[in-house]
């Protein structure tokens, strides 16, 4: 791990008119670190994620990103062209619903290759070889490379979405409920895969989830949100084993035991 | 009321022509950029060339000589009726000879004869946005043009190769203009794409329903998109034209009977007639003469 944080978030708030989206959130994300944001629906997790990934502009506060050239840049002050370039090269965004993150009408190979073509790769053979390699890495059979995602199961679509995001070797990946809507065994396989990839590639990730088990498996650190505020944060094991806030205690104790 | 008060040269009123000319000037200044304009209702249905007719009406002068072609032919419905329309509303000279025309309105072909400086080619465009079938949102495609995000165009070509083993797009083949804007050359066969490159003639594109005008000024770089290992290629024909024997031209297939008989003839009728007048004969014409 290098000595400087990848992402510095300082006092970020987002208001929808008089309603609060999230309020006064500050944290730092370090290279290679996986941070989970948990809380019930309506607690501001997704708003916060959108503010961090520049999909929404925060009402106040600053988000700074450590660029590859070693400089910190305020994301809100970047030009749109630069921001969009960053989003499709150095970042990834995995949506809860794979249809939002994939092009459903083009083949799996083209889905993975799109980012490569966007950054100027113009060699069909190389693009296809890279796409095939990434499909293998996310455990999709290579002979499915010319199938459209419509022909894929939910779990495969989600894995394809992950491959599509990772193909440009991003340093930071945002995930919004990556396992939502998948059945338990498929969830387990996906989590295992993500954990392996994050470890192998040295990715940093911010994962929004309401599922504490996902947070436990994937994340090093977690933040608990309620009513737009971060009420507790710390190492995942500490927060889950020894929750301090009454709300966190309630959350942890409401996990179903089988 | 005098006759003059009820009549305006070339159908459109002067304010409309002024508005269209401004759009054309802007389009010429930014090669390949789609300029929105307030497209008018024309006395013909959308899809019949309302965009091209408006552009032609706006640039037409009493001294111009007009040629109208439809898929290369001067004698098909669309070409005949538009030519008649401008004869009636502007009383301009018309011709079928490519060389003599100052303005050529075309539906989906570029004449075989190389166009020269001073000529203007007006294209009728159904869908001006090359990214439309991949990205349905207009707001998003405009942003992609503005930020030069053209990766998606190659996704389409990738799909072509993945499905067919080669780039199967044969018409409306996307081009990059002057190293900046990706443009739809209207549904011309890709055979004609190389003719757009560094052309001496001015090329104007009008899309009436979609309300866009764009342009390729003379001597502008027009490059067809491709992959390094799947380079751009034009169509090739095995046989020459059956009537005039021309090679290296775009041919149409014509069914002759119900026993599988067919011939391939020049899609550019003027070019074909011109060659025949100069004594060239394809194999079918030669057979016919021998029989007589």
From TrEMBL, chain A:
SMART domains: AAA (SM00382)
GO MF annotation: an example: ATP binding
Transmembrane parts of this sequence: none
Entry annotated with the keyword Ubl conjugation: no
Domain of life of the source: Bacteria
Domain ABC transporter: 7-252
Keywords for this protein: ATP-binding, Nucleotide-binding
Cross-referenced NCBIfam families: CP_lyasePhnK
PANTHER family referenced in this protein's UniProt entry, alphabetically: PHOSPHONATES UTILIZATION ATP-BINDING PROTEIN PHNK-RELATED
Annotated family: Belongs to the ABC transporter superfamily.
Name of the protein in question: Phosphonate transport system ATP-binding protein
From TrEMBL, chain B:
Record Pfam families: PhnJ
Protein name (record): Alpha-D-ribose 1-methylphosphonate 5-phosphate C-P lyase
Coiled coil: none
Keywords recorded for this protein, A-Z: 4Fe-4S, Iron, Iron-sulfur, Lyase, Metal-binding, S-adenosyl-L-methionine, Transferase
Record has Cell cycle as a keyword: no
GO MF entries: alpha-D-ribose 1-methylphosphonate 5-phosphate C-P-lyase activity; transferase activity
Family listed: Belongs to the PhnJ family.
EC number: 4.7.1.1
Function: Catalyzes the breakage of the C-P bond in alpha-D-ribose 1-methylphosphonate 5-phosphate (PRPn) forming alpha-D-ribose.
Reaction(s) catalysed (UniProt annotation): alpha-D-ribose 1-methylphosphonate 5-phosphate + AH2 + S-adenosyl-L-methionine = alpha-D-ribose 1,2-cyclic phosphate 5-phosphate + methane + 5'-deoxyadenosine + L-methionine + A + H(+)
């Amino acid at each position: 791990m290098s000595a400087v944080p990848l992402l510095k978030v300082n006092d970020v708030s987002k208001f929808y008119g008089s309603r609060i989206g999230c309020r006064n959130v500050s944290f730092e994300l370090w290279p290679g670190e996986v941070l989970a944001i948990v809380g019930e629906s309506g607690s501001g997790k997704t708003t916060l994620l959108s503010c961090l990934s520049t999909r929404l502009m925060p009402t106040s506060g600053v988000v700074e990103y450590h660029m590859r050239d070693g400089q910190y840049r305020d994301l809100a002050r970047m030009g749109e062209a630069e921001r969009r370039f960053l989003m499709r090269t150095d970042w990834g965004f995995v949506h809860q619903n794979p249809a939002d993150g994939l092009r459903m009408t083009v083949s799996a190979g083209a889905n993975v290759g799109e980012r490569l073509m966007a950054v100027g790769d113009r060699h069909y053979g190389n693009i296809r070889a890279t796409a095939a390699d990434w499909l293998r890495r996310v455990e999709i059979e290579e002979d499915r490379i010319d199938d459209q995602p419509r022909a894929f199961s939910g779990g495969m679509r989600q894995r394809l979405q992950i491959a599509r995001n990772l193909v440009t070797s991003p340093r930071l990946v945002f995930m919004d409920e990556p396992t939502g809507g998948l059945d338990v065994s498929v969830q387990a396989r996906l989590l295992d895969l993500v954990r392996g990839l994050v470890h192998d590639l040295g990715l940093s990730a911010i994962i929004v989830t309401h599922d504490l088990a996902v947070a436990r498996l994937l994340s090093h650190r977690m933040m608990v949100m309620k009513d737009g505020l971060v009420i507790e944060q710390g190492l995942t094991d500490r927060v889950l084993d020894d929750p301090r806030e009454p709300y966190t205690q309630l959350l942890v104790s409401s996990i179903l035991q089988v | 009321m005098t006759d003059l008060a009820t009549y305006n040269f070339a159908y459109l009123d002067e304010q409309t022509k002024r508005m269209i000319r401004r759009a054309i000037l802007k389009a010429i200044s930014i090669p390949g950029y789609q300029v929105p304009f307030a497209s008018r209702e024309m006395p013909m249905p959308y899809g019949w060339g309302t965009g091209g007719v408006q552009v032609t009406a706006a640039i037409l002068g009493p001294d111009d000589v007009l040629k109208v072609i439809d898929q290369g032919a001067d004698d098909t419905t669309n070409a005949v009726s538009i030519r008649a329309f401008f004869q009636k509303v502007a009383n301009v000279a018309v011709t079928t000879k490519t060389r003599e025309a100052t303005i050529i309105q075309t539906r989906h072909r570029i004449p075989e004869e190389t166009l020269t400086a001073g000529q203007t080619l007006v294209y009728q465009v159904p869908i001006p946005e090359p990214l439309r079938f991949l990205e349905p949102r207009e707001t998003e495609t405009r942003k992609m043009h503005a930020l030069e995000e053209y990766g998606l165009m190659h996704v389409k070509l990738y799909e072509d190769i993945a499905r067919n083993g080669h780039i199967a797009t044969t018409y409306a083949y996307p081009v990059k203009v002057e190293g900046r804007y990706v443009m739809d050359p209207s549904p011309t066969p890709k055979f004609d794409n190389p003719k757009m490159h560094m052309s001496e003639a001015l090329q104007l594109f009008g899309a009436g329903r979609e309300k866009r005008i764009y342009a390729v000024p003379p001597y502008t770089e027009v490059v067809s998109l491709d992959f390094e290992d799947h380079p751009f290629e034009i169509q090739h024909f095995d046989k020459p034209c059956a009537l005039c024997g021309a090679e290296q031209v775009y041919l149409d297939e014509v069914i002759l009977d119900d026993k599988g008989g067919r011939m391939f003839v020049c899609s550019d009728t003027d070019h074909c007639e011109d060659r025949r007048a100069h004594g060239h004969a394809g194999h079918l014409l030669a057979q016919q003469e021998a029989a007589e």
